[in-house]
Amino acid sequence: MDKKILIYIIAGLLVLALVMITLFPGMIIALRDAGKSGSDICKPGQGYTEESWREHMSHHPDIYKDCLQ
After folding, report:
1. Residue 37: which residues within 8 A CB-CB, separation 6 or more?
2. Looking at the chain, which runs of residues are DSSP E strands?
3. Rounded to the nearest 5 degrees, what angle is found at the Cα of 19, between the Cα atoms of 10 and 64?
4. Between these two residues, 61 and 30, which has the higher pLDDT value?
5. Residue 1 and which of 19, 42, 47, 50 are 20 to 30 A apart at CA?
6. How far apart are CA 66 and CA 68, in angstroms?
7. What's the pTM value of the predicted model, to 2 decimals?
């Protein structure tokens, strides 16, 4: 019985992670860029236009503060 509960919990967490990644794809880029510095993080990510990248950066001012000046 305990194995079934563990499997349901793991499956639920996987489904939740997939939903979050689908609804917030920019979250992955923000997490990846959190450790970078300099002009590398100011360049648009793959699949972003210049305008959509600036909008994305505006949602994370603590990470992209140097790019938003």
Report:
1. 66
2. none
3. 115
4. 61
5. 19
6. 6
7. 0.48
Pair of tokens at residue 1: 């019985």
H runs (alpha helix) in the chain: 2-23, 26-33, 50-58
Tens of pLDDT, residues 10-24: 999 999 999 988 888
HSE on the CB side for 25, CA within 13 Å?
A: 7
- Which residues are CB-neighbours of 1 under 8 A, at least 6 positions away? none
Of 14, 9, 46, 40, which is closest to residue 28 (Cα–Cα)? 46
For 26-37, what is each residue's pLDDT tens digit? Answer: 777 777 766 666
Q: How far apart are the first and last CA of the chain?
A: 57
- Give the span between the Cα atoms of 2 and 43, in whole angstroms: 48
Q: Where are the domains of the chain?
A: 2-58
